[in-house]
Structures are given as structure tokens and as C-alpha cells.
Design a protein that fits this description.
Layout (H helix, E strand, L loop, with lengths): L4 H4 L6 E3 L36 E3 L19 E3 L19 E3 L10 H4 L7 E3 L19 E3 L20 E3 L7 H5 L14 E3 L20 E3 L22 E3 L11 H8 L5 E2 L2 E2 L1 E3 L6 E3 L2 E2 H10 L3 H21 L1
Parallel strand pairs: 1-2, 2-3, 3-4, 4-5, 5-6, 6-7, 7-8, 8-9, 9-10, 10-11
Antiparallel strand pairs: 11-12, 13-14, 14-15
Helix pairs in contact: 5-6
Length: about 325
Amino acid sequence: MEGMYPYLATGNLTHLELYDNSIGALEQLGVSGNGVGGKGERSGVTTVGGALKTLDMSYNVIRDMGPVAFCPNLLELYLANNKIKTLVGLRDLKFLKKVDLGANRIRIMDGNELSGMSELEELWLGKNKIEKIEGIENLTKLRRLDVQSNRLTTIENLSSQIDTLEELYLSHNAIDDFGASSHPSSLSLPFSRLTVIDLSRNKLTSVRPFAHLSACLEDLWISGNDIRTFEDVRPLSNLNSLDTLYLEYNPLQKEFEYRKKLKEMIPSLNQIDADPVIDRTDSGGMNTVGGRDITTVAANNWRSCPQDTADFLKLKQREVLELAEKQQ
């Protein structure tokens, strides 16, 4: 961060982005406005990092993020793709709403550091070496949690997020059915707002860990597991809000009429894997996507759009119709 002091020292800089450089250390954030080392606003000395609201130094080679403690007013912190091993420096950042520390070398979700961030809404820790979800008891406003591509075998310690968690990303771990729901503070909790779950590339053999989330779950991504039969999926038939289901790269995908049977079992589905669900109604055989007649939708659009857009819509209609024929 050599040469940055004249800009930081003004005390007016609120957004600092030094994304994708070769920076090895967070420097000068703790220097006071007069050039003397300070201890931050909490000690009565205003540091050059005191005005920062957003700090993005992702894709560098930083090993120690301790100096972020000199930025007590941060709202967003991005230090993804560095060489950070611990969470030291976060404890007093009580205004933070979003933290991205993905692709580092973190092994422990240290509760001593996480506990002070009571306003935190998003915590992104993908691609680290974490073996256990922990230390988030005080994060009672957390809406998005990402611990994908780590070393998890169980889901636990989510009790404090039962009424706030909306999206949970845990793909590419080693979580099986037991590990997903056996712990009292796991997915077995009656979450009220959890709309998106990603457990792709784990060791699931059924969907039982999600069967009780009928009031909220909309997107379930469980590609690349070991789900083999339609009976293993049947518990999802009670999920009236489920809109999107990713099951590709499971043995079940090879079954005859895989998509058709899933739609019959789970009527609410509008997307299976990467493709929308195509229905033919009993009355007229019309092609619909999400309950809407694509012919009618396209015709209405053609009347009110430029010619090039109309041509595009016609092309998309043909593609959808061809896809529908293949699925019959």
C-alpha cells in the first residue's frame, strides 16, 4: 500500500479497492491523520482507516488482516483469495454487514472474533479448510452463510439464525444425510425464511433433511450426490413452495422419464436442473412454462416490440417447442 497515505490521510476516503495486485500487507490503516501511529477512533485518535465504509483487497497475497481493526466503521470487507489463516481483526468491527474471506487458508471459525459483528448479514467463507460451523451464536441478523468447498461433515450451530437465514451454501463438502440433520442445531431446525440451500457435491442419499421446510424452501441444489431412486426424492412432494430443483449428476438422473416423474411428484416445480419445466395441458395441449402459454406470451410481445426483438422471440419459441417435443 506504498504511496496511499496522502489519499488516506484526508479522512474522507470511504471506499478503497485495491483488487488483484501483489499487495502483501495491510499497511497505513492505523496511522493517524498527523502521520503518527494511532489506535483507532475508540482511543480518541482518528486513523486514516477510520472513515472507510468499504475495503476490497481481494486477490492479493495478504497473510494478516489484523490491521482492519483500524477501520471500525467498515460496512463491507472483501479479502477473498489471499493467504489469511485466522480471523484476527474482526472482533471490534461492530457495523460490518458483509464479509468475504473466501479462498484463503482459514481453519477455524473463531467465535472470539465473530462475536462482535452483531450487524453482520452475509458471511462468505468458501474454499478454506474449515471443519466445523461454529462461532456464529451472536450473528442474529445473518441472512447468507457460505462455507462451501471446505472440510465439513456436519451442519450445526445454526440455532441463532432460525428466523433470519435465507440462503445456505455448503456445496463440495462431505456431508451425508446424518450429518445434515442429526445435530439439534442443524437443518432439522424449523427455519422460517430459508429459501435457498446448496448441498451439491456432498454425500447425500435422500432428501429427508429438507422435508420439513415446506413453508419457505424455493431453491434446492443437490447435484452430484448419491440419490438413486424416486422414493429417495418423494419427501419433497410436501414442499409447496419448491420452484427449482437441481438433481443432475445423481444416479437418479439416468432413470426413464426422470423429469416427467419429478414434475408429477412435485407439482410446484418450474425448473429441473438447468431447464424450465415444459407442460402440455390436458385441455388443449398448449406448451407452458411456469403455467404461462409460451405461444400467447410470445404473440403479445411481438405486437409491441421492434422487429429484431420479435424475431428473437420467435426463435426462442421454436427452441422451447423443440425441447418440449424431446421431453415427451
